[in-house]
Amino acid sequence: MAGKMAVYPGSFDPVTYGHMDILRRASLLFDRVLAAVSDNPQKNHTFPLPARIEMLEESLRELRLPKNKIRVESFSGLLVDYLKEKKTPILLRGLRVFSDFEYEFQMALMNRHLDPQVETVFLMPDASHIHLSSTLVKEIVSLGGEVRDLVPRCVLRHLKSAPAPNIP
Ligand code: PNS
After folding, report:
1. What architecture is the 5-161 domain classified under in CATH?
2. Which residues line ligand 1 (CB under 6 A)?
3. What averages of pLDDT result for each successive group of 10 residues across the chain (168 residues)?
């Protein structure tokens, strides 16, 4: 398939309006974007992989993008191997607050060490989303707070039906 494709990997546990904002921006820059949901059994995710994928797919419909502009897949193993499999060197990450930088910088350089062809591209979300994270959303919900303006509607539904001890 022709055109530049970028891979936007993450836990999406769950997807927030911050992720959606990055995906919308990426859709304007790249021909295709692959939202890659991490399937890592060692990570203690709140939502199982199928639910994280379902929330992301349903949320993306809100963006009303052309079909196949953004696709959702899961991946396991090393990200650099997945990029190679997808035949693209473009790895996309969002940068919010300054505290993200150290972790993201380390990951970008380590991925470059593992595969010098891989290029990490950082996008900043809208300023209204820089304080937003999946972890905070889950904490707020678990304490009875309102997150309606932080996550897509289908995520709200999942958050409300998730068993309480599982959040955050
Ligand atoms: O949304 P997150 O939790 O910040 O995403 C982190 C993710 C999934 C991108 C990262 O954990 C990852 O790349 N995992 C794949 C395993 C891997 O390649 N590890 C080496 C990274 S330098």
Report:
1. 3-Layer(aba) Sandwich (3.40)
2. 9-11, 38, 78-79, 107, 110-111
3. 88 98 97 97 94 97 91 98 98 92 96 98 95 96 95 94 61
